[in-house]
Amino acid sequence: MRTRKSKKNSLLPALVVFTVILLLVFTALVLMYFGKIPGIKAMDAKRSDISASTAAATNTAAESKQPPDNTGEPEKEPAESTNPDELLISWQNPESFAAKKIMSDGSVRKSYNDGSSIQFWAMVNNKTAKGYKAPYNMAFGSPDMYSELEGVTTFRGNNFRNAPSWGSCNVKEKKLEIVWTHDIGAVSGVGSYWPGAGWTGQPLLVHWSEEVRKLMNINEDLKAKDLVEVIYPVFDGKVYFLDLETGRASRPEINIGFTTKGTGMVDPRGYPLFYSGQGLNENNGKKGAFKYRIFNLINQKEVFSLQGSDSVAFRSWGANDSSALLNRYTDTLINCGENGLVYKVKLNTKFDKGAGSISIDPDVTKYRYKSSYSANQGIENSPAFYRNLMYFADNGGTIQCLDINTLEPVWIYKSDDDTDSTITLEETADGVFLYTANEIDKRGKAGARANCNIRKLNALTGELIWQRDYSCAYQDYINGGALATPVVGKNDISDMVIFNIALTGTTNDGTLVAIDKRTGKEVWNRHLKAYSWSSPVDFLSDDGKTYLILCDFLGDMHLIDPKTGQDMDVISVGGNVEASPAVYNDMAVVGTYAKKVYGVRIK
Ligand SMILES: [Ca+2]
Ligand SMILES: [Ca+2]
């Protein structure tokens, strides 16, 4: 034991040590405050959120601006880099992390302080790969770097899922006008009738390069035209190819033979490859296997497929509504299945423009997991990416941030119910955030109501920034809550995020709500007499004003002022719209239950 004397003798060194520690802590705090230490940015962001909301009460002008950065030099973002190694973001386990255990079968189990856990398997050639590390690094850049093509090439356009429109529109009259329609069919299957196009059903709008256009089997008369092609897989089991300007077929249909409900994907490198999931395994009495398919668009032939009913999956239902992403820097496809698996596919693409040929030779890696939050498997939303971090949610309500290179979850979050709305991302000076909302499904009881929970999370830590709840009616077949993917405001509406919530009053109506990104408070709230599963679409006019298009189950297409939520124009597109429109300059395209694809000019 130390005596009083010896303590006195050590006073000077102790003081020196104390001063050094104090200096270190002070330096660390300064670095944390200016966001130089990752992970701490999160706390900083939350704080900025609170201070911004306080400031908003007295100074609305300051609200839309970024908070002042006293350091002068914001962190350099390698946004324009196309080198995955430079885009990589390292991460740390969140504070809620408790333990990580390697299991005897080669899987890993991560547990958290609240008692939750996730067990996960990386699988190469359908065998668990112990200590999996990707043979190459993969990461996405800024969302505007996602695609080399002009247009909408995947659901909501990019890896942040924030671009359902492309280009700019000269809005004068603030009116919508149907300029063409194209007939599509219907099928019966799995106990229901499926006319037209379904959820999420966003048509792809592709402005091909002249070189690639001339290689493909596009109708001869259109080969000389600077074509923007509508590529649209729908309920009737066909993929339609249309001229955006006229709505006429630009080439023959591909007959998949089975329904697509979700959104396809066109190769963002501008390669003639098309990717599509399958929504049902029954078509007017004919049954068949679930497949995820890749087509060569030079000759429209199928070149590869993944079996939806995957032997390693924990769920046998093999549908695929999710719209994939393709990492063009690494030739890698990322796709999610309703079987509960994430697919990472090295395509080994060979595109010979001179010879007019394209081939792939895929290597398939799978990520499988079990979450303690729910045993319900299946992913129906479309994956989002910040650099090497992937974001998705499932039928059981587990939201995950997954490192795509190690196939290890960074954090998990309990959303409390089926979450089919696609997670949207945003990177700001305050940090990286995601917006998500769930539906009323697993919590539902006949005649009862439950809250649709809208949340903003810190995307790097999984920490809740704010939450808003909306009471919804429960219905087992047509779920209430958020099936739509939100508009994350940009440009003149960069302060708000706009969600579309179904069944907020009765089982017929809904609510469109704009929420202040920082405070989580409502900017406006608009009652919709007809509910909607269709995702609202934001597009920009030449004069810098953002407009919204929203479709609903009564078949109305609304042109909406996103500053107020009020209609500027309404037209009928014939029937229930579960699908989401896509916009290219002044043309909006969507398929509806009226068994037609509509080409609508924004005037
Ligand atoms: Ca679901
Ligand atoms: Ca559901």
Automatic annotation (TrEMBL):
Domain of life: Bacteria
InterPro entries to which the protein is assigned, alphabetical: PQQ_b-propeller_rpt, PQQ_rpt_dom, Quinoprotein_ADH-like_sf, WD40/YVTN_repeat-like_dom_sf
Domain Pyrrolo-quinoline quinone repeat: 509-600
Coiled-coil residue windows: none
TM segment ranges: 12-34
Stretch list, region Disordered: 54-85
Bias (Low complexity) ranges: 54-64
UniProt keyword annotations, A-Z: Membrane, Transmembrane, Transmembrane helix
Xref: SMART domains: PQQ
Protein name (database record): PQQ enzyme-like repeat protein
Annotated organism of origin: Ruminiclostridium sufflavum DSM 19573
